[in-house]
């Protein structure tokens, strides 16, 4: 890209997939092959059950990989059965995906809940990555990283066009501040990733299905690092 090199985020969202053994196989295969660059931030978001082991394997291997969660509690720690509080999750994670459309659709998550989750993340030094489904979404105070993820493009090979995604990104930055970093998510794979990260306003990608394969994800990281 022209001018100052921008930092690109590549975020793997494993959703509700992978045993600990499968997660560790992935880390062992991907970790040593991630291009090292100050301008590349690669994050893996396993399910809660694999967080601890994934974090350990990355630390031992000294891989340039950050760990994220796919959700966190809207409350502090306490009597909230089944919830994972940010103040405990931060032992493993530096980022959390919040407000994903699958959580809104399947678990009744509302804007109000997402706003509370963002606040918990910030208070506990976890970077909130808020998913927004359209350009008109309101971004809660303090959240400076969002993923534009149109629902029609998720999990079906039907990605938005890079031009549309850039338009939505631009609109989000215009209404929430030019320092907002916006990623694109929805059917990103090795075949289309370069076209998204080449867009002037897009700061990276959030990848579901294609991130499950170590081989495909490694390829994506290499393509991004070469096309920047
Ligand atoms: P997908 O998922 O890459 O499988 O479309 C992206 C996401 O839901 O974050």
What structural class results from the helix and strand content? alpha/beta
- CA-based gyration radius: 16 Å
What count of domains describes the coordinates?
A: 1
The amount of beta strand, in percent, is 15-25%
Helix tally equals 8
Order of helices and strands: EHEHEHEHHEEHEHEH
Q: What low-confidence regions span 5 or more consecutive residues with pLDDT below 50?
A: none
**How would you sum up the major sheet?**
8 strands, parallel, barrel
- What is the C-level CATH assignment? Alpha Beta
* Principal-axes shape call: globular
What spatial order of strands do you see in the largest sheet? 1-2-3-4-5-6-7-8
Bound molecules: 2-phosphoglycolic acid
CATH architecture: Alpha-Beta Barrel
According to CATH, what is the topology? TIM Barrel
Percent in helix: 25-40%
- Give the end-to-end Cα distance, rounded to a whole number of Å: 6 Å
CATH superfamily placement: Aldolase class I
Mean pLDDT: 96
Count of extended strands: 8
Question: Could you walk me through the main structural features you see in this protein, from its secondary elements to its overall organization?
Answer:
Strands 1-2-3-4-5-6-7-8 form an 8-stranded parallel β-barrel, surrounded by 4 helices. With 228 residues, it is an alpha/beta fold. The model has no long low-confidence stretch (mean pLDDT 96). It has a single domain, classed as Aldolase class I (TIM Barrel, Alpha-Beta Barrel), CATH 3.20.20. It starts with 7 loop residues before the first strand and ends with a helix. The longest helix has 15 residues, at 162-176. The chain contains 8 helices and 8 strands, in the order βαβαβαβααββαβαβα. The site of 2-phosphoglycolic acid has 13 residues, from strand 8.
């Amino acid at each position: 890209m022209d001018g100052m090199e921008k930092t690109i985020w590549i975020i793997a969202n494993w959703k509700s997939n992978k045993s600990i053994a499968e997660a560790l196989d992935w880390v062992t295969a991907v970790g040593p092959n991630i291009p090292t660059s100050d301008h590349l931030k690669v994050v893996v978001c396993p399910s809660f059950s694999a967080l601890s082991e994934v974090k350990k394997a990355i630390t031992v291997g000294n891989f340039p990989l950050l760990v994220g969660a796919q959700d966190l509690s809207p409350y502090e720690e306490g009597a909230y059965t089944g919830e994972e509080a940010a103040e405990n999750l931060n032992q493993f994670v530096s980022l959390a995906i919040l407000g994903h459309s699958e959580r809104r659709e399947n678990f009744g998550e509302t804007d109000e809940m997402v706003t509370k989750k963002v606040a918990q993340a910030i208070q506990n030094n976890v970077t909130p990555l808020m998913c927004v489904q359209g350009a008109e979404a309101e971004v809660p105070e303090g959240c400076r990283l969002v993923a534009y993820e149109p629902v029609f493009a998720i999990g079906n090979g039907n990605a938005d066009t890079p031009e549309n995604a850039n338009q939505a990104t631009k609109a989000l930055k215009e209404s929430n501040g030019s320092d907002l970093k916006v990623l694109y998510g929805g059917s990103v794979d090795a075949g289309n990733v370069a076209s998204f990260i080449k867009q002037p306003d897009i700061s990276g990608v959030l990848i579901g299905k294609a991130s499950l394969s170590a081989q495909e994800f490694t390829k994506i990281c290499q393509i991004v690092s070469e096309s920047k």
